[in-house]
Records
---
Amino acid sequence: MPKGGTGSTAGTGGANGGKGGMTTGGTAGMATAGKGGSGGAGTGGAAGKAGAGGSAGSATTCARWPTAQGSQSVSSTIEVSGVYDGGLKRFSGTGELGTATQGEDQDPLFDLSNNSTLRNVIIGSPAADGIHCNGICTLENVWWEDVGEDAATFRGTAPSLTMTIRCGGARNAADKVFQHNGNGTMIIQDFVAQDIGKLYRSCGNCDPQYARHVELINVDVTNSGPLVGVNENYGDTATFTDIGTSNVDAICERYIGNDTGAEPESTGDGPDSAHCLYEASDIHGI
């Protein structure tokens, strides 16, 4: 499971606090358990306190499958601009969003504008089309209990855009977890998934098409079809680092994509030097 980052050291005026929980004005590193710091030499400073000008960070735990802290029904899409912290409540669709099918063109529970962050959210069932990201966005500590059409869709249009998913998990996806329809790069880090069709798919028949990129780092997947699907004719790439698998059909499958809406043709799977970029040492059992 997700390996936590190391937080910043507490500032002067106090001893060095436990890393992973405090910062000097910054955001705490994500960790299952931070590394303990050594006692500092600050006079009169209480061990573990933030230094002058700093404040204790709002640490995000990367515990596997956290317990929901309450529930909220979503009858119309929640528009997110900036940062939305769900407090680890379970959000489930109702009314027009009360769907759990694979029907196309469903609305999402959350719609993120450019430069937005969604954190500390559990997506329950029904989940409609999960989350849409319309530019640079971050999903942090977001968990899908029962994926609807897709867990999240990246819809940005510029090659410089990045969608980052870190510290989260998804279960029960009849098809894809993450759908990449737009341009740019998707980063999936410190993530677990089980009982899914695919973890990531670069759209095989969208109009327009782009060269899309995905990076997977510290990801564990159990019971899946091909982990990743990319379009070789549009220059897609997928990189893999520290990937744990159990009962996964393939790591990376290549397709000939199109912009006509036709079903794309598979050309095979496995590592190569252009699109599916990994070595045997990057993959391990779980």
---
Amino acid sequence: MSKINTDSKLIDELLSRSVVEILPSKELLKKELMSGRQLKIYIGADPTGTALHLGHATNYIILEKLRKMGHKIIVLFGDFTARIGDPTDKLAVRTQLTEEEVKKNTATWIRQLLPIINFNDRENPVEVVYNSDWLSKMTFEEVLNLASNFTVQRMLERDMFEKRLKEEKPIYVHEFFYPLMQGYDSVHLDVDVEMCGNDQKFNALCGRTLLQRYKNKEKFVFITTLLENPITKEKMMSKSLGTGVFLDSNNIDMYGKIMTQADENIIQLFTDCTFVSLEEIEQMKQNLKNNTANPRDLKMKLAYDIVKIFHGKDLARSAQDYFVNTFQKKEIPAEILEIELPAGNKKIVDLLIISKLADSKGEARRLIEQGGIKINEQVITDVNLEIEVVNGLIIKRGKRQFVKIKVV
């Protein structure tokens, strides 16, 4: 077993940075972390999409810090729970996924997490598990016994269910089983700590109840901050809505999407998604408050730091150069996607689809009508326009997407 790091200062930061609440208390968890005992800690995520986002990264960054301290960490992929779908933040039932869809979604998740979790450490290895391994094998009798630990009234405490009742929208029985299944993950894995976002608090507490009843064991619920705009309270990242900064983005897209974040999001993104010290972040906060720092400059540092974590220093520098040349200097970048086409004339709508700047003719027409397409820096407004395909022709969609034509 790995030696446990019980450094008090390190533990204090772990229990305060990006933390909303720790149940039953932060003081009791600190006592356990100071005891020298190896704790078993897990995070679960449902593969309802093909990519994780920066909001997920917050939890995994903390999890890796705990692993480096010597604790046993478990990365759980909810391949079974994803097929039912967590009703969190939903005023209508989620669409259930097929087993094939779930497998496709999880295919690249570990690769996305490699920059922040060391899956190759043999001294204190990461355990990767899939909850279909035990949930799919439960008998109906076991499921009934599991359900007997909770009342309907307890399930209806979830605010989205209350809203549905008020709006006379249906609540399906299978939705009640989601927190039971996630809760049973804690029992099966026999964990000491579950890490989750505040939107998963109800489910995690169900797991705490089940662990107490099945094994007479306490479980700590370590609740991390959600990435939310402090003014509008809207989520910065959402896997189900497909919005935010996703971990499978290339360096250029990741940098650009961070630069589009609202200025008021800068401090939380530094806190939750980087390794910049809290002292330096506090200084940034004061500088913004005193108008002695340009939000754009801080955002560029933020984008560089995050891209460096996931793509390395060289690609982070390349992404920053691309941004400066494309947006600040209004130049076309030196390296852009190049596609090969035969010489001749092509309709602009077809050209956008071939170059993958539009997914359909309808989308291509809308982009043109909205002034979102340029050919060699000239705005195109005619959806019926025919373009002569020549070497070096540059097509631009919006502010960041470029394609260069090579005639073959």
